Amino acid sequence: MKTLENKTAIVTGGSRGIGANICVSLAAAGAKVVVNYARHQQAAESVVAQIIAEGGQAVAAAADVAEAADVKKLFDVAEANFGTVDILVNNAGIVHYKPIELTTDEEFDRVMKVNVNGTFYGLREAAKRLADGGRVINLSSSAVRMMLPTYGPYCASKGAVEQMTRSFAKEMGSRGITVNAVSPGPTETEMFLGNNEAEKIERMRNLSALGRLGKVEDMGPVIVFLASADAGWITGQILPVNGGTA
User: Fold this and answer.
1) Mean pLDDT over all residues of the chain?
2) Is residue 60 part of a domain?
C-alpha cells in the first residue's frame, strides 16, 4: 500500500546502512525522498537510482548536518523539487568507541556536533517548515540503556536526542505533527561491523533475545509506520527496535 503517497521526506545520512534502507522503504510507500549525504555521493546517487528504477521519486542532496546552514539547504532542495516537506528523519550520526579518559576534546565535540547539533538543527528547521500533520522521526540507540564501556560520549549524544524528541513532541502537537525516536540495537551496518572486533560483535549478537544482530531491513518498515497516518496517536515515544537486546 502507498501509505505515504504525495508526501515528501528528508532523510539525513541516507546514503548507506540504515539510512539507505529508510530511503528505499519510504519511497516504496509512495514518498518522494531527499537522500542526504555528507561524503558518500556515489552511494547516495545509487540509492536515488534504485528508487527511480522502482518507480519512485528521489534526489540526492549534499549537506553536513553539523552545519545549520547546510540543514536549511536540505529543506530548500526538498521544497524546490517536491513542494512542502512532510517527513523528517534525523538519521545521520557518528560513533565513537573509546574510554572517556582517553577521549579528546575534539573527538567529544565532533560526536556532539553531528549527533546532537545535527538533530537540533533539523528539529529547528522542521518547526518552521514542516507541513501541519507532518512526522519527525529521530534515530537514537539502544546503547543508551546498556551501560557499555567506551560508549560514553555516544550514549550521551543519543540520550540528548531522546530528550529533544520528548520536548519537541509537546511543542509540535498543536499542529498535528508527531515526533518520535527509533532506538535500534546492534545492527549489521558497515559502520558497526567496521568499528568492532569479532569478539565484541559476537557478544552483541548473543545479547539479543532472537540470537542475531539487527539488519538494516528491520528498520525501514518501522519508520514507514511512524511516518504514516496509522501512527497519528503516537508521539513523544522512544521505540526500541533491537530484538530484545535492551
Assistant:
1) 95
2) yes
Over its C-alpha atoms, the chain yields an Rg (Å, rounded) of 17
Whether 154 is a known active-site residue: answer: yes
Q: What is the CATH number of the domain that holds 80?
A: 3.40.50.720
Which three cell numbers mark 2?
A: 502507498
Tally of domains within the chain: 1
Query: Is residue 246 domain-resident?
Result: no
CA dihedral 212, 218, 222, 227 (to 10 degrees): 150
Q: What's the pLDDT tens digit per position in 114-167?
A: 999 999 999 999 999 999 999 999 999 999 999 889 999 999 999 999 999 999
Among residues 124, 130, 150, 154, the alpha carbon closest in space to that of 140 is found at 154
The pTM (predicted TM-score) of the whole model is 0.95
Paired sense of beta strands 57-62 and 32-37, if any = parallel
Domain of residue 100, residue span: 8-241
- Plot region of 11 (φ>0 → left; ψ -120 to 50 → alpha; else → beta): beta
- In a domain? residue 2: no
Question: Which of 37, 121, 151, 154 is the catalytic position?
Answer: 154
| 124 part of a folded domain | yes
Burial of 136 (0-12, 13-18, 19+ CB in 10 A): buried
What's the CA gap between 160 and 192, in Å, rounded? 21
